[in-house]
């Protein structure tokens, strides 16, 4: 186990924000994880867990304890008839796994192509895009509990999955570190091309949807909407899309008659509305810039950091956005990005 000192968190997060981590260790196995946790506990240092840092906001003060960079690699394939289980370690790159599945003719995660981050982050956030949510493919999540120092498997129904939410985000789960995830994929599946951007793509290109062409479609759609992570600081959507009661929707539709909304499976009395639409059409905040931060010119919900800002500034920027939404629609919005 190697412990590094004084590593800037802004070099480890795609928003490129955050002060120094006093200690940092790259974790390549469960044994090293155990050793690193014992080392930190011996010194009474708090732990912070990071994967690829693509959906987190790190504090300007940094972290006074030990940062664990989850880098455990490995993939195990279990075939049972028409179903194939992919058991992937937390440190595998998510899109690498999607590509592997597609190249091997496995259905289920193709719509989640191109999402940045590691496998270990996917259940925490219950990642979703273009009509697919990862909770529908997760069989179990293996965690290492830093309280009991034991590895435990949590089955899907024990994970508390919701829209961009899970038990792993709750304060009482702070001691749980995701080490492996088992995804159930199909050898013969049905492609979901119903999301508007996706169906438009296939109409315009006049190509037949296949696993491969669907991946190409998603990567192309994402390429047009998201800034390049390697060029600017970003974490994708900064806020969640709000879920509101249908009776509140009725009121909003009186003023904003074009406001889009989507039915949700979880609750028939509520709808999800695209915050990007409100930011663009109600708050006039698409491409809105203050200091070192702006809402992306091609997608208003995606925040961009030009490189010299601070987390404090971004929080102020985000609260100005939230305030406008509250004033114009009376909706309280919640961050999608995890504040560390
Ligand atoms: N829209 C605007 N202005 C914009 C962008 C979008 O008015 O600048 C409107 C359009 O009407 C569009 C609607 O908003 O039809 C929805 O936009 P989009 O399809 O881009 O999706 P989204 O609701 O903004 C969500 C997820 C994304 C995911 C996409 C595609 C959240 C918070 N965001 O965005 O996930 O990639 O759907 O499925 O749920 C992420 O979680 O970080 C993320 C990027």
Shape-level CATH architecture of the largest domain: 2-Layer Sandwich
Taken in chain order, the helices and strands follow as EEHEEEEEHHEEEEEHHEHEEHEEEHE
- Percent strand: 25-35%
* Largest sheet, spatial ordering of strands: 6-7-12-10-11
Class based on secondary structure composition and strand pairing = alpha+beta
Gross geometry: globular
Mean pLDDT: 97
Number of domains: 3
If you compute it from the alpha carbons, what radius of gyration comes out, rounded to the nearest whole angstrom? 20 Å
CATH topology group of the largest domain: Uridine Diphospho-n-acetylenolpyruvylglucosamine Reductase, domain 3
DSSP, total strands = 19
Description of the molecule:
The chain has 8 helices and 19 strands. It is α+β, with helices and mostly antiparallel strands and 340 residues long. It has 3 domains: 4-70, Uridine Diphospho-n-acetylenolpyruvylglucosamine Reductase, domain 2 (2-Layer Sandwich), CATH 3.30.43; 75-186, Uridine Diphospho-n-acetylenolpyruvylglucosamine Reductase, domain 3; 233-339, Alpha-Beta Complex (Uridine Diphospho-n-acetylenolpyruvylglucosamine Reductase, domain 1). β8 (128-129) and β9 (132-133) form a beta hairpin. The radius of gyration is 20 Å and the shape is globular. The mean pLDDT is 97. The structure holds uridine-diphosphate-2(N-acetylglucosaminyl) butyric acid. Uridine-diphosphate-2(N-acetylglucosaminyl) butyric acid binds next to α4, α7 and β18. Uridine-diphosphate-2(N-acetylglucosaminyl) butyric acid (EPU) is lined by residues 129-130, 196-197, 225, 236-237, 240-241, 260, 274, 276-277, 280, 286, 299-301, 336.
